[in-house]
Every structure is written in structure tokens, then in C-alpha cells.
């Protein structure tokens, strides 16, 4: 379809009227005299007008530049705020992860501070929820800023940003408190573990000392058996010696006024027997001396074990004092724990009583062993004296036989 122009809408009569009017205007312009020229303006007024126009143009340009700068600054502020919000979101996510990890560790490690930690956890969760709400509000306000670019919204953003900073400060304070509590509890746990390790080491040392004592007792029993065997051998030798003396008395004739010489073979045999007896007695003396040395060594070992047990007693007392101090610190620093069951208290008391009873019993046993060792040493010394007397008697007999 073809569009119609406005002249076609008027029709033929309208177009004729418009042409007539234009012709009348031309005739009027030709018939009327020309208008007089306007008076020339003075030059000062022209300069002032030009200066005013230039100033207006400069002011307009400055205003435009200022508006552009303001817009750029607003856009930069908005971008910076968006970046800050993104960073804050990332920080909040990291803080949430750290908090979750810390809370898991706390739940695994700690049972005493459970109510306080739950309160802290609830506070942190509330704080995080508030932060998320504030971040959502900030995002909404930033969208409004991008849409409206108003100064009032900037003021609101500043206020919200201050609130967010305050909330972050509160969150950091809560985290610091939580970390301090965790560090305190970890230190206490490490101290308790060290004390438990020391107690285990002391118990192992006590067990080793008991084993050493048992071995020493077995050695003492073996030495006693050897000592009894030596006594039996000595008795047998003495019986043999007496029998030989009786044989000598029976075989040798009574000495005449000039004593006849005894038969040479018998004398030689008797001399050989006496020499054998002397050798046996010397061997017995050596064995007894070895026994004495062994008993003295055992005596010294028992003294060392006694000193070690005394040191262990002192260490146990020191550990008990340290445990008491730690318990006092825990009672002063931590909130009051729930009351323990009575069975556990009874078991702990029984264990402490057993330890306190067993250690003096061990000391008494060691003292008894030392006393028995001293008695054995004295007995061995008496036996040595008896053997020396027997040796002297045998030497006298040999001299008598040599004389005959």
C-alpha cells in the first residue's frame, strides 16, 4: 500500500488556497519598505557577553567532567565492593571449613569442655548466619546502587560494611578464644600422656628389677646347693682321713725304744694319700673363695637394686605430686566436670594402695636377701677357717710321718 502525503489529504481546493496565501506573502514583502538596520551594540557589552558565554561553557564542561569522574568513582567503588564481597565470601567459606575441622578435632579430643564448646559453636553458627544475611543484604544494596546510583544507598552500604567489620571482629575474637581453649586442652593432654608414659616406664623398670631379683634368687639357690655339696665332700674327706689315721694306727707297730723303721711301701702310700688330701683341701679352699667372691658380687648387685628401687620410689612420689598439681590446675581452669562413677574412684584408690604396699614389700624382701647373703658369707668364712685348721693338722701328720 502507498502512504499518502499531507498535501494529498487537503484536496485540490486546499492546495489552491495554500498557493494563494504564499503569493500574498511575497507581494507584501515586495511592497513593504525594508526594515531599518539594528543599531550596532557597543563593543564592551559584546565582550562581556562573549566572556559570560565562555564561562558558562567552561562551567558546563567542568560539571560534565565532574559528573564523569563521579560516575567513574562510583563504578570503581562498586567494583571494589564486589571484590571485597567475593573475598569475604571466600574467607567465610575458609573459616567455615576451618571451624568444622576444629570442631571435629575438639569433639574427638575433648569431653570435659563439651558444654562450653557447644555454646561457642552455637555462637559461631549464629554469627555466620548473621554474616550471610548481611552479605545478602549487601548484594541487594549493590544491585540497587547499580540500578539507581544514589548517595543514600552508598551511606547504607557504608553502614552495612561497618556492621560487617564489627561482626568479623567478633568472629575473630570467638575464634581466638576457641583456639586458646584448644591449645590449653592440647597442652594438658600432652602433659597427661607424658605422665602416663613415665608411669609405664617406671612399671617396666619395676618388672625388670623383679626379674633380676628372681634370677638372683635362683643363683643364690644354686650357690647354696653347691655349698652343701662342698660340705658333703669335706665331710667325706674328713671321714677318709680318719679312716686312714686308724689304718696307720692299726698297721704301724708301737714304736720300740729304738723305733724300727716301718715298711717303706706303706709309708710311701700314706704319704701319697696325705698329699692327695692336701690337694683336695686346697681345691676346696679355692672353690670356697670363688663362692665368697660370687656372694660378694651378689651382695653388691642387691645393694644396687635396692638403691634403684629407692630412686623409683622417689620418682613415683614426684609423679604423684605432678599429677596432683595438674589436677588442681584443671580444677581451677576448667569448668567442673561431671562426677565420676564410684567404681572408677574405688579402682584408682585400690591401685594406688597396691603400689604403695608393693614397693615397701619389695624393699623388705631385698633387705632380707641382703641379710641372708651376709649370713652365707659368714658361714663361708667359718668353713675356710675350718679348712685351714685341717690343713695344719695334715701338715703335722706329714711331718710326723717324715720324722718316722
From TrEMBL:
One Gene Ontology cellular component: membrane
Main localization, broad class: membrane
Domain of life per record: Eukaryota
Tagged with keyword Electron transport: no
GO BP: any one term: transmembrane transport
Residue ranges occupied by any ABC transmembrane type-1 domain in the UniProt entry: 73-241
Keywords in alphabetical order: Membrane, Transmembrane, Transmembrane helix
Segments traversing the membrane: 16-32, 44-67, 74-97, 103-126, 133-162, 168-194, 201-223, 229-253, 265-292, 298-331, 343-371, 377-403
Lipid bilayer topology: Multi-pass membrane protein
PANTHER family: PROTEIN DIAPHANOUS
Stated name of the protein: ABC transmembrane type-1 domain-containing protein
